[in-house]
Amino acid sequence: MNSSNRLGSGLMLQLLMLTALGITSSQGLSEEYLKDIKADQVAEQASGSYNYDQQGNDWEGTCQDGQQQSPVSLTSSAAIVTAIPRIYFYNYDQNLESPLILTNNGNTANMVLPPTQNGQRAYINGGLLPGTFEAQSVHFHWGSASSKGSEHTINSERYDVEMHIVHKNIRYQTVSEASAYADGLAVLGVMFRAVNRIFSLHSGLIRIFNQLPQIVEYESSTEVTGRLTVQQLLGNIKTGEFYSYNGSLTTPDCAESVTWTVFKDVVDLPERQIMKLWELKDSRSQPLTNNYRTLQDINDRPVYYTAQ
Ligand SMILES: [Zn+2]
């Protein structure tokens, strides 16, 4: 009996992918974290190959015929301004239990988040969230040397980079399962602006960006070492001001399972850090730039805005 029979083809595939990413359990990563990274890879593969040649206009299925798609244009004039609860963050200030694995999956720079050192995950509730949502992964959308690349626009302004912190409703076991339900996922959107400064106060983000040159190639991974909290990803933005609406994943299969919370405040990052994103390559060894989806019709969906 050969090893692929003994392990079963699914597990074998997963092990091969991990090997391809140079990840082994000898690096002090927990079994749970490795399992989550594998699940994330399997979900990424299941979404099929796609690219940003037409900013998503050629994607099919729900991406083409969905009526609650993302991203959308967010404007203070069209939003319903109302007092909604703030977003409450739990364990966001706790150190993560292990180094992060940062991966170029051909579409973005992605990090699956491990639990924190207290054994729990970072999680959120409040806002318009239909439940409690655990932080699962973080990725970015960006432009190029000559274009900005946020997905949402705020008052018609497109920012240089948009970071997505993907959370899953604790009602569901996996992100894949959650994406089949309207209340399955919650994504926090954070805008980054390139500024002409050398230094940044956002040491956690800088440590992540400093590793980007290690993942230029498709399917390469690296570790982000040192103490890191999910809070550090938010820079020092005011989290009391945000837009919220019901939408979708902005990548295939564009599942309409996301409660979006997009913060109005912006993280300033040195341009020399943001430039590192433009160096990444996709699965065709082409520059991975402008990996944002075109704006989608709002179709009478309410967009809420709160400032507190
Ligand atoms: Zn995204």
From TrEMBL:
Any Gene Ontology CC annotation: cytoplasm
Main enzyme class: lyase
Biological source species: Drosophila hydei (Fruit fly)
Family the UniProt entry places it in: Belongs to the alpha-carbonic anhydrase family.
Reactions catalysed according to its record: hydrogencarbonate + H(+) = CO2 + H2O
Signal sequence interval, chain numbering: 1-26
Segments traversing the membrane: none
Required cofactor(s): Zn(2+)
Pfam families named among the record's database cross-references: Carb_anhydrase (PF00194)
Role: Reversible hydration of carbon dioxide.
Descriptive protein name: Carbonic anhydrase
Keywords: Lyase, Metal-binding, Signal, Zinc
Residue span(s) of domain Alpha-carbonic anhydrase: 48-307
One Gene Ontology term of the molecular function aspect: carbonate dehydratase activity
Region (Disordered): 48-70
Record EC number: 4.2.1.1
Keyword Signal attached: yes
